[in-house]
Amino acid sequence: MFPFGDLAKTWWTENGPLDALRGMNSLRMHILARHLAPKGRMAGKSVLDVGCGGGMASEALARLGAHVTGTDPDLRLIRAARAHAAKSRLPIRYRHGLVENIAESFDLVLLLDVVEHVEDPARIIAQATRCLNPGGILALTSVSRNAFSWGFGILAAEYLLGWVPRGTHDWNKFRNPSDILPHLRACGLECSPPVGLVYQPTDGAWHEDPHALSGNWMIIATRPCERNHKHPRRAR
Fold first, then answer.
1. pLDDT of residue 34
2. Which of 28, 155, 166, 225 has the highest CB neighbour number within 10 Å of its CB?
């Protein structure tokens, strides 16, 4: 189980413990929109948000017109996500459970802040790829494992700044892009170069930097279209 369930009651609280994640989420959505809908058209796209938590990414994409399904193993987070989506009048489908229980296929599958909390990243990547339409995109984020990420991602974020609760992360499960790229390619995905997601205290905002991969990073991978491939049933 992912370690965010204790934050369910404060997931959407302004000036709360997840403000930093909210800022990073805005940058992630900007990158996704550029890859999935180069002309700004997200309407009609089907999305699966694996490990959706309280629904931050799910709601952002739903507001752009995507048909979103979110799944999470923590029922507290699913309840918080459902409540906020109802309050926001967003028709997001939230399911309590694992990606293994999803039978549909999607244009976009999100694995945001997931692989650093599982024992077997190859397995969850394979399951996520199974849910991906030909020509679809898988977006994956994680945190590199090095001295910087221990200092910033754990010591600072958990103990000094209090961005997330203490014990949220296990540094031994942090994944470098070089750890994850082979798993994506083994699933037949074509990967864009990883990009770093960097927090700049000077302006209090997150920025993308293809050369800064020592902390948070993101990879966009595409499932190639196959000739004469019968498309699986799309989610709506």
1. 82
2. 28
